[in-house]
Amino acid sequence: MSTVRGARERARIEVTAAIKDEARRMLAAEGAAKLSLRAVARELGMVSSALYRYFPSRDELLTALIVDAYDSVGAAAEQADARALDSGAAPRQRWAAVCEAVRAWALDHPHEYSLIYGSPVPGYSAPMDTVGPASRVGNIFIGIVRAAHAGRGLALPPLPAVLRPEAVRMTEDFAEGLPPEVTAALVAAWAQLVGLISFELFGQFNRVVEDRAAFFTHAAGQLAHGVGLPAV
C-alpha cells in the first residue's frame, strides 16, 4: 500500500510541476492577467476538471507561482550571503553580495521577477501564505545590519522627527533591536534596490545607463552607506 501511495504522490508532484511550468510559460508569453486554468489544461492535454484537483482556482495557481518566485530569489540571496560569510566578508561586502545576487536572479528570471515586483494582477489579492517567502530577502538585509550594529556599530542616518513614530513602529514590527533611524533607512534602501532592478529590467535605463553592472554596484554601495554600514 505504501508503494502505491508513493507512486501516487510522485505522480502528483510531477503533474503539479508540469502545471506550474506551463503557467510560467504563459506568464512569459501573455502576462499574469491572462493566465487561465482552462488554457493551461488545454496546453497540457488535460480536462479542466482534472486540473482543478491540483489548483481549484486561478488565484491558487498564481499564489503557488508567487511563493515559488519569492522562495527562489530568497534562496539565491541566502546562498550569496552564506558564501560571503564563509569567506570572512564584512557586513558591507555581505550587503553587496546579496544585492548582486538579487539582480542576477532578476535578470535570469524576468517574468517571475515581474510577477512579484511588477504591476499587481487585476482581481488578485495575495494571501498570507506569501508573506513569509516575500520576507526572505529583506530578512537577510536586516540580519546583515544587525551584525554590523552588534559589531563595529552603525552610522545612524538622519531621521525627521515627524517620521520617528512610524520608524519606531516598523522597528517593533520586524526589526527589533535596531535603531529606528536604521529601520527607516532599510525600508527605503529595499524600495530603491527593487527600483534599480526594475528600471534595468523594464527598459527605463535604455539610452541612459550603458554600463549597468558597474552602475548597479555603485548604487548598491550607496544604499549600504545610507543604512549606516561601515565602509570595511
Could you give me the name of the CATH homologous superfamily of the largest domain?
Tetracycline Repressor, domain 2
CATH class of the largest domain: Mainly Alpha
How many independent structural domains? 2
Helical content band: over 70%
- What is the level-2 CATH architecture name of the largest domain? Orthogonal Bundle
Q: What's the total count of β strands?
A: 0
The largest β sheet comes out as: none
Written as H for each helix and E for each strand, in order along the chain, the element string is HHHHHHHHHHH
Question: Beta-strand percentage?
Answer: under 5%
In angstroms, what is the radius of gyration?
A: 21 Å
Mean pLDDT across residues? 93
Shape: elongated
- Which fold name corresponds to the CATH topology of the largest domain? Tetracycline Repressor, domain 2
State the secondary-structure class.
Answer: mainly alpha
Cα(first) to Cα(last) distance is 60 Å
> How many distinct helices?
11
Stretches where pLDDT falls below 50 for ≥5 residues? none
